[in-house]
Amino acid sequence: MPCVSISAQGLLSEKNNFTRQDTLRGSITPERSWWDLNYYHLDIKVDPDKKFISGKNTIQYTVLKDHSVMQIDLQAPLNLTKAIQNDKELKIKHDGNAHFINLIEKQKIGDIYTIEIHYQGNPKEAVRAPWDGGISWKKDQNGNHFVASSCQGLGASVWWPCKDHMYDEVDSMLISVNVPKNLMNVSNGRLRRVEQYTDTKTYSWFVKNPINNYGVNINIGDYANFSEVYNGLGGHLDMDYYVLKDNLEKAKEQFKQAPKMMKAFEHWFGQYPFYADSFKLVEVPYLGMEHQSSVTYGNGYKNGYLGNDLSGTGWGLKFDFIIIHEAGHEWFANNITNKDAADMWIHEGFTTYSENLFLDYYYGKKASADYVIGTRKNIQNDRPLIGHYGVNSEGSGDMYYKGANMLHTLRQLIEDDEKWRQILRGLNKDFFHQTVTTQQIENYLSDKTGIDLTEFFNQYLRTTKIPTLEYAIDKNELKYRWTHIVDKFDMPIQVRINGNEQWLFPKSDWQKITSELNIVSFEVDRDFYIDVNKL
Ligand SMILES: [Zn+2]
Questions:
Q1: What is the DSSP secondary structure assignment for residue 258, as one 8-state letter?
Q2: What is the pLDDT of residue 120?
Q3: Among 207, 194, 214, which Cα is nearest to 280's?
């Protein structure tokens, strides 16, 4: 999702007291772990006049372990009304937003079963989408309904019943949405069919690839459509755009950035991960979100973040923040997905970093460095990037800009841009369509770079301390050391002494080097995200 705007700050304040409901939502409970998701068919009717959703989700799953109780999540005020397996209605124990269904039929390990979950009600209305999400019930300029879902963090169960945990992605999904006949629904994947009724239409979208729950979306409006075919690393990619009819001309101009984005990101990260499902940009009545293969857009057809440059360098106005950032998530969030919300820096750190790689591709290395370094002013160092595990808790908002600057620092340590690019591509290949942990990403990067990055990640992901280089110069002698570091942190840094570039290898105790001449100038390479303190 986009980093939180100034106006929405406070919505994501830290939570320290976790409840039983947080554990039910955020952990892999025994009632979740025994079954593996195969397929969802979400089949619903959306009535914008009444702000009402009703319908069912048919879930296909494989039994992994012996168990007879299934946890399905659905958030109040929606009602889970009925669960049916083999024509038999099942008993349900409701526990807040978690619903425990007693299965009658013996669940045989390795077999595939189907269960129908029926529900209805007025879902939570989004307060400030996408950060405090739910359903946005809005109107366009012509008075038509303009409706969209957004639910990262909050969870997909705010609008449909599912196994609402990141670890288990459904393998494929059909999304059928019945809407008033003057409107269209755009969801993920490809439009499979449209059924016409007297006053309504049902749009069915099919997603061929694994998808995370919060990536699933409905967007209902008076849409116009245009499209193009992009020749990419995976062959012909359909790129489709759905925008409000009044914005068609503006969109045709602004969305020229979409194939540019695709070119830069396929270069850096490898093949777009969802060719079979196409790529779409879909206009919505909020800022935007990384919905898989249907990235949602509400940035007002302006460059920057709602017209602003978050880096303060001017480079942020060279691109439309929502097109670039949210589409960057197709690689980091949708292709490589965190297993636990605590590891959400994997989504936001890499994707924020992708903004400067987009600049790097079109404007060069200096521009990209200016940009990512410029965004450092947004870092708070209030709490660590990693949140609390097992309770659906995200880390600090620093996962965006500190995450990006951490990766920019890592690029310097590798000292080989082509190697770095192959590592970024390797991540997307080796973790293709997978859910992962921070530890897996750390191990992968240590392995592929050949550098033990244990302390590097402990420092930047698990503390709020910025490593500080303390130094003193006495004639031709330089002494230096690290402070504000975790145990054994010994990251080397590039410096210029009297204009000559060299590496320093600081540790927690003082090191010393002597130069032939008196040291008249000493500079630390600005690419390293550290503090410097001259004694
Ligand atoms: Zn994001």
A1: H
A2: 98
A3: 207
Residue 397's SS3 state is helix
CA of 286 relative to ligand 1 center, distance in Å: 14
pLDDT given for residue 10 in this prediction: 52
Task: Please determine, for residue 16, whether its predicted confidence score (pLDDT) is greater than 90.
Answer: no
CB 177 within 8 A of CB 46: yes
The CB-side HSE value for 236 (13 A sphere, CA atoms) comes to 4
**How far apart, in whole angstroms, are the C-alpha atoms of residue 408 and residue 354?**
10
Which tokens in the block code for residue 526? Answer: 């600005």
CA of 399 to the centre of ligand 1 (A): 10
pLDDT of residue 9: 54
Average pLDDT over residues 356-363: 98
Q: How many helices (H) and strands (E) does the chain have?
A: 11, 29
Is pLDDT of 485 > 90? yes
- Ligand 1 geometric centre to CA of 348 (Å): 5
Query: pLDDT digit string (tens) for 211-270?
Result: 999 999 999 999 999 999 999 999 999 999 999 999 999 999 999 999 999 999 999 999
Rounded CA separation 317/268 (Å): 21
- 320 DSSP 8-state letter: B
Mean pLDDT, to the nearest integer, of 118-138? 97
Q: What's 465's DSSP letter? A: P
Helix (H) or strand (E) holding 223: strand 223-232
Token digits for 210?
């694994």
C-alpha distances out from residue 182 to 194, 222, 305, 348, 469, Å: 13, 7, 32, 37, 63
Distance 288 CA to ligand 1 centre (A): 9
- Nearest C-alpha neighbor of 96 from the set 34, 18, 24: 24
Q: What is the spatial distance between Cα 166 and Cα 174, in angstroms, rounded to a whole number?
A: 19
**Residue 239 Cα to ligand 1 middle (Å):** 21
Predicted TM-score of the model (pTM): 0.97
* Statement: residue 448 has pLDDT above 90: yes
Yes or no: say if 226 and 322 are a contact pair by the CB < 8 Å rule: no
248-257 residues labelled b (16+ CB within 10 A) or e (exposed): eeebeebbeb
Distance 290 CA to ligand 1 centre (A): 7
**Cβ(174)–Cβ(40) below 8 Å:** yes
